[in-house]
What we know:
The chain is an alpha/beta fold. The protein contains six helices and six strands. The protein folds into two domains: about 1-50; about 55-194, Glutaredoxin (3-Layer(aba) Sandwich), CATH 3.40.30.
Amino acid sequence: MTSKTFSENKPIYNKMYKIVFIGIVISVLLSSCQLKKNKKIEDDFKNFYLSTIQCVDILSKSDSIDCKWNHSTNKIVVYYDSINCAPCELKLLPRWYHMIIEMKEYRSYLDFVFIFNTSNKEEIKSVLEDFGFEIPFFCDINGDFKKCNNFPKNNIYHTFLLNKNNEVVLIGSPIGNSSLWDLYKKTISDFQKE
């Protein structure tokens, strides 16, 4: 039995070297893509946080009498973009209903504002009725409200808390995130003390 020398095993080592090298290159590329994605999220957050929401007058109101943008209250704004999976997003409405009920004691200085990027008010009204969710809502018919406020494309920024000055003070949907919901409640409670 003779053992092979390094030069006889060289093709095997070269093949393993190439596989390891390719693995390292792929890892570096993937982490580079992830870093770019994280940087984009961080930049979007910095640009959106504490920005002042404007152009509320271009929103089309639902037929509800109490549909108004109250400039003297804090607001949780939920923006439903037609680009995202609307049926998936709308399935979350019953969970919002429970949160609204939970925040009943704060209703004198907190509004929930639901904005739908659609021109079909009747369809939204029908969907809301199907869920038993009777709320006033706005429609951003051409997406002008979203453009005016330079909303980031990522829908994680489409739910946010506004202070009385319409400045974004919290970002992200508290649906399914109890820690974030606790932060919303604490911030809203702190607003009451102001």
